[in-house]
Specification:
UDP-N-acetylmuramoyl-L-alanine:D-glutamate ligase; 38% helix; elongated; alpha/beta; 2 domains; 5-stranded parallel beta sheet; Rossmann fold; single chain
Length: 490
């Protein structure tokens, strides 16, 4: 099974089609520090307003932030709000050839009143909805499907985002699903909060949350067994390949056809606002599937993305670089800093894809002293990730003599890993780190100033692809050998 770090490094360009209910989110921000004189209600003194794409349009923005090329297929009214929504999506790079204008219905608008306590700490006070939930007229549905057909061949994945606002009727969903599946495209559905999921029959995957899954099946969610039974019921009834039931702080349950259910955990978050979490799960799964990731890692990516989303107020796309960074951070917390060469290479690739530089240095680090700390801190300042190649016990003995090392590899690695400036510790058994340098390919290679550039092992490799060699001044009078000699003298 591919690790999540390796999987996230494979996320790259993909093409997604998003079908669903488009919305314009309008947000009115102001101070809410007094009550009305004529009724016991708070008064919002509006200071500013903004609007942003919501619903299926928000899924599009999330996918673009993850590196996707995205086209949308939905409906707006022939009104000012619809034009604002189209303009906002076009500015963000969403392909809008499939955006149908229907004068018989209004653009769905969600107007939120957001009060600020002491000019900060935004809290949603109230929401006003302007919408029609009537099914699309036949002409609008036909135009949407025609545009969908024209774009389908080049797509990697298809998303359906259903808020039960009229676009995703059973007829239209079944047409989208059957056409996409016939073309060999995966179809991922974020279902509406409805009791009949027949409209999603034949999709590749659906992603209900706990409450939606209970409503659709009439079953109770809770234990692993109960959650698995719900997922199995949906999988079989709708002829799906997989089901992902999101479980808030408990992560998500994944059930693939022919497999046992798996609970995919997530990191506990300080939840600020759950708005947009479902959109983010769909986007994370779609980006992953569109890039060829397996379902388990796709759910892992979606968990991370949704976790980042609920920590912020409102709806905001999470860039792929931020998701990659969070995966690295969580991986470090779970497994410490000891890495194999392959693991370090994968993490280094992720760092480079987020625009950071990878720094490498090496040594025995037998008895950590102030000189080591100074060198490592200076090394870390040259990039975003510091990898330390650490000689194993046998190679230290060959290099330093039969009485060394004083501390075992495990102890030395643990001490190095406790330093905040060190991101990864990679043991090696050779006399030089040339193999590690060739595999990890650091952007910056660092040694002490007692070397010259030409005597630094691996300088030819690093410089061959545009990397650099940096020599750092040593702290005078600080060395492991000197420390040992002073201890003997006492």
């Amino acid at each position: 099974m591919t690790s999540l770090i390796e999987a996230i490094s494979r996320l790259g360009p993909f093409r997604a089609l998003v079908v669903g209910d488009l919305m314009l989110d309008e947000l009115l921000y102001g101070d809410a520090d007094r009550l009305s004189n004529d009724a016991p209600v708070p008064v919002l003194h509006v200071r500013r307003s903004e609007h942003r794409p919501g619903g299926a349009a928000n899924v599009c923005l999330n996918l673009i932030a993850m590196g996707g090329e995205v086209s949308v297929f939905g409906v707006t009214g022939d009104d000012e709000e619809g034009r604002k929504l189209r303009d906002a999506m076009v500015r963000e790079g969403v392909g809008c050839d499939g955006l149908v204008v229907d004068a018989s219905r209004p653009t769905t608008v969600k107007r939120s009143l957001i009060g600020l306590a002491q000019h900060r700490h935004p809290q949603k006070m109230f929401r006003v909805d302007f919408e029609s939930t009537e099914p699309l007229v036949e002409d609008a549905a036909d135009r949407l499907l025609a545009a969908f057909d024209a774009a389908l061949a080049d797509a990697d994945v298809v998303c359906i985002e259903d808020y039960n606002k009229g676009v995703c009727s059973e007829l239209l969903c079944q047409e989208v699903i059957s056409r996409a599946r016939a073309a060999g495209k995966a179809v991922l559905v974020d279902p509406a909060s409805i009791s009949d999921y027949a409209r999603y029959r034949g999709a590749t995957c659906i992603t209900p949350n706990r409450t939606e899954a209970e409503k659709a099946t009439g079953m109770r969610a809770g234990s692993m067994q109960e959650n698995s039974e719900i997922a199995r019921t949906l999988l079989d009834a709708l002829d799906l390949e997989s089901v992902v039931v999101t479980l808030d702080r408990h992560g998500a349950l994944l059930l693939e056809r022919g497999e046992e259910a798996v609970n995919v955990p997530t990191v506990a978050r300080q939840v600020y606002d759950v708005t947009g979490a479902g959109d983010m799960v769909l986007a994370g799964l779609a980006a992953s599937v569109g890039c060829g990731l397996d379902w388990l890692n796709a759910v892992g990516v979606a968990n991370v993305a949704a976790g980042l989303e609920v920590e912020i107020f409102g709806v905001e796309p999470i860039p792929l670089a931020r998701i990659r960074h969070e995966v690295l951070k969580q991986s470090g917390k779970l497994q410490g800093k000891l890495r194999s060469a392959e693991q370090a290479r994968l993490e280094a690739d992720v760092v480079r894809k987020t625009g950071g530089k990878v720094v490498f240095t090496n040594g025995c680090f037998d008895i950590i002293h102030a000189g080591h700390i100074a060198m490592l801190e200076k090394s870390a300042s040259h990039g975003a990730m510091l990898v330390v190649g650490l000689n194993d016990d046998d190679s230290v003995k060959r290099l330093k003599g039969p009485t060394r090392p004083v501390n075992t590899l495990e102890d030395r690695a643990r001490v190095l890993g406790a330093l905040g400036c060190v991101d990864a510790v990679v043991p090696f058994g050779e006399d030089t780190p040339i193999r590690l340098i060739d595999e990890i390919k650091p952007d910056v290679l660092i040694k002490g100033a007692d070397y010259t550039r030409e005597t630094v092992v691996g300088h030819e490799i690093v410089e061959s692809y545009g990397g650099s060699v940096v020599l750092i001044d040593l702290v005078e009078g600080k060395s492991t050998t000197g420390t040992i000699e002073r201890m003997k003298a006492k």
